[in-house]
Design brief:
single chain; 151 residues; alpha+beta; Jelly Rolls; 7 strands; 59% strand
Length: 151
């Protein structure tokens, strides 16, 4: 009886889109969804930690959007960020969201456009809340490093 329940649940997940991660592909270019304060994602085996001068993220599977960094600043400020971004499958990007609700793509990555070496990008931080998010779909084996001096 227990095996029948497990098979039935698995079958139902195949039939209903709520069990899939199609939402991530549909929302990948949606400024409205990316702007939201709440994150929406599905991921497996994830490690996110601060490293000297920045952050490191490794994830075996990822779909959705997740805030990686948030900071409220008093005055407009330019910030340089060094980014190394690798994934073996899927599509992902790192975006900056300023206090005016402007979403700017810092770097976009697919298996064909990985950056094993660090690439320097400049971000215009606005007074108020600024956020960095990862947005992606069908992603596997993400290795992201971001180095920057926080304002």
């Amino acid at each position: 009886m227990k095996k029948i329940k497990i098979v039935l649940i698995g079958f139902l997940c195949l039939l209903f889109p709520a069990c899939s991660n199609d939402f991530a592909k549909q929302e990948y270019d949606s400024t409205e969804k990316i702007l939201q304060q709440t994150d929406r994602y599905a991921k497996d085996v994830s490690v996110f930690h601060s490293i000297d001068g920045g952050y490191s993220l490794t994830v075996s599977k990822f779909d959705g959007r997740e805030t990686l960094w948030t900071k409220t600043i008093k005055e407009n400020h330019e910030m340089e960020i060094d980014v190394s971004f690798y994934l073996s499958k899927g599509q992902a990007k790192i975006v900056h969201i300023d206090s005016n609700g402007t979403v700017t793509t810092i770097i976009e990555c697919s298996p064909e456009t990985v950056t094993d070496e660090f690439v320097t990008k400049t971000i215009s931080l606005k007074s108020g809340q600024n956020r960095l998010k990862i947005v992606g779909y069908d992603c596997e084996n993400i290795d992201l490093k971001m180095l920057f001096a926080e304002p």
